[in-house]
Amino acid sequence: GYNLSVVNAPALYIKAFYNQTWMERYNEPIRAETVTLLWSITVSIFAIGGLFGALVVSWPIKILGRKGTLLLNNIFAVIAALLLTFGEKARSFEMLIIGRFIVGVDSGIALSVLPMYLGEISPRYIRGSIGQFNSILICFGVFIGQVLGLPELLGQESRWNYLFSFLALPAVLQLCVLPFLPESPRYLLIERRDEAAAERAFQRFLGKKDVSLEMEEVHAEARAQETLHTVSMVQLLKSRSVRWQLITVVVTMASYQLCGLNAIWYYTNGILQEAGFAQNIIPYITLSTGGIETFSAIISGLVIERIGRKPLLIFGFSAMAVFFSLLTVFLNFQDSVSWMPYLSYVCILAVIASFCSGPGGIPFILTGELFEQSYRPAAFMIAGIVNWLSNFAVGLLFPFIQEALETFAFLVFVGFCVVAAIYLFIILPETKKKTFMDISQSFAKINKVPVSSTSHEMKLVLCTGQDQNEKVQNGFKMESSF
Questions:
Q1: Dihedral of the alpha carbons of 110, 113, 119, 122, in degrees to the nearest 10
Q2: Which residue numbers delimit the Major facilitator superfamily (MFS) profile domain (predicted)?
Q3: In whole angstroms, what separates CA 90 from the centre of its chain?
């Protein structure tokens, strides 16, 4: 999240640095098209790094596990922070570009492994809320990038390089804390066959001695996949039994990027200038967009287990389509009505809030929920590839779309939002409070595969523990009321 917004504030200073470095090297000013190309590469290579991270993530996951991969990944963040911070002092714009690529790799790996880890360690009745922390903290990262980029803080010509040193802080924090947390118990039991370690992990995560119900749930899933090993991406693409789960993940992850929110983040300043706002107040207006994004993500995390994934996704995409349409209308009339730019600004806030109500975090949760253990790493790899390719496409093509269509550019995103909402309404089953086995079996009919007998076994396991879970949850409620 921080990497999406941190380049906005120092954009002019970075371009000036490119020009100055070019002059020192070649004794001539840099051409306008060259500095534009270098700046475009600096912005968009983050997505290329993310794509590379998503492509290579399956190997460390298999060897090191979820926790080990996250720990190793912090090395990329620290290296990137050093390159980006000291690139200006070394008079090397190549260090900035390479640093953006490396931090993209870090983000690509993190966005594949972290939702998987959170989904596997969470009890199913709060799995959605825990999964939304990923989205909340991405939004918080965007907001922090905007705050630190203010002129009063680090958004100055003499300080802009220190904006990038902040990248090392969460990496160092995770290196200090994560070693003391357990590995995913599902990974330990199903893939490592280490029952004792899985039981200890469940006990630590859930804070109770008796984890027999949770262990039996994972055992049932393991028995259903006892003839399967962790599948490759190619095997997943060929598998008919998970075809519609895969299509659903591709549609939701592509829509996550193609719905148009990144066009607002990458080009917020330009959009607000065209809406008629003065240059000196734009950084503070942008700050409010980050605040509304974080607030909306928190609200979504609080209600996701009551409302469900499917209604929040459909509402989010539908509301975005409505507000993008209104934004188009208001932008077309902003020159004729003095107060119209303020309505454009309200629409921008509404688009951001709509995105964070569902589309901003649930696609990552769904990727973990729609697949059983053996398919999950490959599914996250494919989801990551779609995510970063779509991200790159929006960053690369939106300026040309904006130039060609002008104020009608956002209607392109309306189309993507409407298609996504219709698809999810027709195809996606609700997944809240269901086991991974139940969710997988809900696709059996549309995939035209027989329902596994293990699913009936799983239902018996869950029925046995349902009263126990209700008692635990009711106990929590009574305790909190006292």
A1: -80
A2: 1-432
A3: 33
The model carries a pTM of 0.80
CB-CB contact of 253 with 387 (8 Å): yes
Asked if pLDDT for residue 32 goes beyond 50, the answer is: yes
Distance between CA atoms of residues 383 and 121, nearest Å: 20
| Residue 305 near residue 126 (C-beta atoms within 8 A) | yes
Question: Crossing angle of helices 340-356/309-332, nearest 10°?
Answer: 160
- With contact defined as beta carbons under 8 Å apart, do 376 and 116 qualify? yes
Domain boundaries, the chain: 2-186+203-211+224-451
C-alpha of 167 from chain center:
17
The 10s digit of each residue's pLDDT in 417-451 is 999 999 999 999 888 878 777 887 888 778 777 76
Q: Residues 58, 112: contact at Cβ < 8 Å?
A: no
Question: What does the alpha-carbon distance between residue 236 and residue 371 come to, in Å, rounded to a whole number?
Answer: 10
Residue 171, C-beta contacts closer than 8 angstroms, at least 6 positions apart: 74, 77, 78, 81, 106
| 482 Cβ contact partners less than 8 Å away, ≥ 6 residues apart | none
Structurally, what CATH architecture does the domain formed by 2-186+203-211+224-451 represent? Up-down Bundle (1.20)
DSSP string covering 124-169, please?
GGGHHHHHHHHHHHHHHHHHHHHHHTSTTTT-STTTGGGGGGGGHH
**Both tokens assigned to 273:** 């200038």
| Highest-pLDDT range among 34-43, 215-224, 314-323, 373-382 | 314-323
Indicate the residue type of 297.
A
Q: With left for phi above 0 and alpha for psi between -120 and 50, is residue 448 left, alpha or beta?
A: left
Residues in the chain: 482
The span from the CA of 48 to the CA of 115, in Å, is: 20
Burial class of residue 349 in the structure, from the number of CB atoms within 10 Å of its CB (0-12 exposed, 13-18 middle, 19+ buried): middle
- CB-based contact 111:35 (threshold 8 Å): no
User: Which parts of 104-231 are beta strand (E)?
Assistant: none
Three-class secondary structure of residue 95 per DSSP: helix
